[in-house]
Design a protein that fits this description.
It contains 13 helices and 14 strands. By secondary structure, it is of the alpha+beta class. It has a six-stranded mixed sheet with strand order 4-3-2-1-5-6. A three-stranded antiparallel sheet has the order 7-8-9. A three-stranded antiparallel sheet has the order 10-13-14. One manganese (II) ion (MN) binds near residues 382 and 421.
Length: about 450
């Protein structure tokens, strides 16, 4: 199914969440109160940090997400939304709830948080899910974030409903528009700051509305996995070598997480980008329901060894290169992670509702996803190949230094690195690439 059906699938989504909560709450609490979150104020200041809503709240309630709303789930009853809408003239109060989703809830508009205790009634048997223990206690909610409840809910969150898939298809469509604008800006000689501005304008996102801080990395900056700055200065046309842009978008609180890498002209680095595109596609073709994501990660590491060897940068058997950590130098992060209401969605290393933890394979500590691939999951596939000076120095000082063509590798350092990241869903037993229909490689 590739038709987008966010609104028509919503009632079924709420029904699924209701079943999951009824199961997870059984024996733990009579109900749950999910707090959207409260404002955080900077030290000795009156400015608020950006509001980042509770992901459990985003699972239930489409955007826009606003502060101090409480969703009350009591199994067997219609969910109740206590929607905070203060009278205010310093700030614009939230609009009345409206749209396709409101019919699923009993909605009560709350002007003052003082009214919450009365509206909740006997709160002693309710579990609070949120980040403000003091406020919760003042409302009579003393059972806070029970671990066993969260473990069950987090495990289930990996299985996306059709509504969630629709949101993430749309988030990918929006992110793709940003990536196209960013590529155009790079080709026109823009600075990192200007590329980010182009991206935000094309996606109509404010900076804090993107699901993570966009990574906009020119040249050597592409070797910093989570490069976080935006240089304002433009580079000369003949200094521009690489753009690695890892930037997402959201739809109803659900994330897209997309990376592309571009270079100017031909040459060995352009050939490496082409090789990585081929291998990224190859690893996506290996995906099957039930397969082990950790195995895919290891397969990708072997592909990296072969890319390096084919390019004349390394001369080593692929299995040996993985086993002895040589490929780790060039791809020191995991192949990908679960994606959803959070970019790095929860429970990637959790194998049951009880919270059993499956660690990553030895030598691959950054792999966030170790549970088997299954119907309904959405995850990223994001192989990378980097020339990171500190890791290269370690390799050069070690026993496999002889396998590396250092002259060729050093010539690549000014290009930084490559990452190519798509979002993948398992739908009706098949692999659906949510990104490429909007943003071909
Ligand atoms: N954008 C962060 C990541 O790809 O995991
Ligand atoms: Mn990313
Ligand atoms: Mn990612």
């Amino acid at each position: 199914m590739t038709v987008n059906t966010i609104d028509t699938e919503y009632a079924a989504h709420v029904a699924t969440l209701s079943e999951r909560f009824a199961r997870a709450l059984d024996g733990i609490a009579d109900g749950a109160v999910i707090h959207s979150g409260s404002g955080h104020v900077a030290f000795l200041d009156d400015r608020h940090y950006p509001f980042i809503p509770n992901p459990h709240y985003k699972n239930w309630i489409p955007g826009p997400h606003t502060e101090d709303c409480l969703l009350v789930i009591r199994p067997g009853q219609r969910p109740q939304l206590l929607f905070h809408q203060p009278d205010d003239y310093w700030y614009q109060p939230p609009e009345d709830p409206s749209g396709f989703w409101t019919g699923e809830f009993d909605i009560e508009v709350v002007r003052s948080l003082d009214a919450i205790s009365n509206l909740l009634g006997d709160a002693s048997k309710l579990a609070y899910i949120g980040e403000h223990p003091d406020a919760a206690a003042a409302w009579g909610l003393r059972r806070q974030n029970p671990e066993s409840l969260l473990a069950a809910l987090h495990y289930d969150r990996a299985y996306k409903t059709r509504y969630e898939l629709g949101c993430m298809r749309e988030a990918n469509r929006v992110a793709a528009a940003g990536h196209i604008a960013a590529k155009d800006a790079f080709e026109a000689g823009a600075s990192e700051f200007e590329i980010q501005a182009s991206y935000l304008a094309a996606t109509a996102h404010r900076e804090h509305e993107t699901p993570y801080g966009s990574i906009v990395a020119l040249n050597e900056h592409a070797a910093v996995l989570h490069y976080q700055h935006y240089d304002v200065a433009r580079l000369q046309a003949d200094e521009l070598r690489t753009l690695l842009i890892d930037a997402g978008a959201t739809c109803q609180g659900y994330a897209a997480d997309v990376t592309r890498t571009y270079t100017r002209g031909d040459g060995p680095f352009a050939a490496l980008i082409d090789a990585m595109k081929t291998e990224q596609q190859g690893i996506i073709d290996e995906i099957a329901p039930g397969s082990s994501y950790a195995d895919l990660h290891l397969s990708m590491q072997r592909r990296i060894a072969n890319v390096l060897t084919d390019a004349g940068l390394l001369n080593m058997d692929a299995d040996d290169a993985v086993e002895h950590g040589v490929t780790f130098t060039f791809m020191p992060h995991g192949l990908g992670h679960l994606l959803g209401a959070q970019t790095h969605d929860v429970a990637g290393q959790q194998t049951d509702t009880g919270g059993t933890h499956e660690p990553p394979p030895a030598g691959h500590p950054a792999l966030r996803l170790t549970r088997p691939i299954d119907e309904g999951m959405v995850f990223t596939i994001e192989p990378g190949l980097y020339f990171i000076p500190s890791l290269l120095s370690e390799l050069r000082a070690g026993e496999y230094a002889h396998a590396v063509n250092w002259t060729a590798v050093e010539a690549m350092i000014p290009y930084g690195g490559i990452r190519i990241e798509d979002n993948i869903a398992i739908v009706d037993g098949a692999t659906e690439n949510l990104t490429q229909p909007h943003l071909p490689l």
